[in-house]
Amino acid sequence: MTMTDGGSGGSNRSESLRAAVLYNPARVNFPKLKRVVDLVAEESGWRRSLWFPTERDAGAGDLVAAALAAGADLVIAAGGDGTVREVGAAMRGVDASFAVVPVGTANLYARNVGIPLSDLATAVRIAFTGHDHAVDVGLLDYRLADDRAGSTPFLVMTGFGVDADMVAYTDPELKRRFGWVAYVGPIVRGLLKRDRPKVRSRINGGDEESSRLHSVFVGNCGTLTAGFQVLPDALIDDGVLDVLLVRSLDRTDGPRVTRWLHRFNNPVARLRRDSPAAQTRTESNDSFRYVTATDVELHISPEAVLQADGDEIGAAVWARMRIDPGALRLRLPQHSRRAAGRQLGGSRVSGASGGTHPRHAAPPQSER
């Protein structure tokens, strides 16, 4: 499948450029997508694009390699968060641009970086005319209860507890028919769950701490479905992961966590996404702990379901999360700093191994 040549209105440099579109045929309205890409590519003076449907017998890495070998300067992932994560992972360290056209249910990565979720033409236009920004990629290594081990990059967030339960217990058919509304039941189930595995955690190679935890969020981005912020300081280009350790959601813990999250999710806060966030991590207490890190290691007993960017990984007994700073050349809107709120910022890398933030702070005390 190819596009018609686009040759009008572009510079010599743009006329030599070519895009490759890796799309999920189960998600994408292909004729509509191709029509829009054709039009924008022609307007931008790009050569006709290459098209690669994702397939079960061909991994994203193979498709990206084929696209680059064919001369692609830009690789566009058109699909849901799973497609975006797999293609983005394959683009790590590659000297080509990566763009996202969201066509999924949650579309978390697009939501976090300021790509419009319901405007196909604008998302495609950003892919062809936006600017490149070096952003971070998270790396997850894990071992499951059945002794299987693996690793996968993540672009948004990983962890266990509420978020992972939402992924594990959402009915795929309800998700297909009703979109993000299908997550409501599993979210409530996760919030009411009282199981708390014992977690031995090590932050940035510091001392190992032991605590019973209800939920753990480790993210490169901080916004979930419906725009809810759970990691309000997370930046995609700061060279660190944001980490939220939640002891429980009962007794006094639930109100404490709720009040803290409300600060960043009430209507006034949503209108002030560019407000200073320096105080966020200093408010950790016995109910939760919010830190930044470049390396997080968790020993989990009994095992807990782990997720990465909305994909269930499995029941894990061990996990390690690290950051690969500036590993991905992401194509963003020209006004991306405003569009993505605080998701783009200056670098916090200089403080990743020290500084004023509690990088080695202990998890919340939870043996009660």
In summary, what is this structure?
With 368 residues, the chain is of the alpha+beta class. The protein is built from twelve helices and 14 strands.
Rg of Cα set: 21 Å
**Strand and helix order:** HEHEHEHEHHEEEHHHEEEEHHEEEH
Q: What count of helical segments does DSSP give?
A: 12
Assembly level: single chain
Portion in strands: 25-35%
- In CATH, the topology of the largest domain is named Tumour Suppressor Smad4
Number of domains: 2
Please identify, by name, the CATH architecture of the largest domain. Answer: Sandwich
Question: Could you explain the architecture of this structure?
Answer:
With 368 residues, the chain is of the alpha+beta class. The chain folds into two domains: 12-129, Probable inorganic polyphosphate/atp-NAD kinase, domain 1 (Rossmann fold); 137-325 and 345-351, Tumour Suppressor Smad4 (Sandwich), CATH 2.60.200.40. The chain is 27% helix and 29% strand. The strands form two sheets. Strands 5, 6, 7, 8, 9, 10, 11, 12, 13 and 14 form a ten-stranded antiparallel β-sheet that branches. Strands 2-1-3-4 form a four-stranded parallel β-sheet, sandwiched between helices.
Explain the layout of strands and helices.
Elements: H1 12-15, E1 19-23, H2 30-44, E2 50-53, H3 60-69, E3 74-79, H4 81-90, E4 97-102, H5 108-113, H6 120-129, E5 131-144, E6 149-154, E7 157-160, H7 162-169, H8 172-178, H9 184-192, E8 198-203, E9 209-212, E10 215-219, E11 241-246, H10 253-265, H11 267-270, E12 288-293, E13 295-308, E14 311-332, H12 336-339
Parallel strand pairs: 1-2, 1-3, 3-4
Antiparallel strand pairs: 5-6, 5-14, 7-10, 7-13, 8-9, 8-13, 10-11, 11-12, 13-14
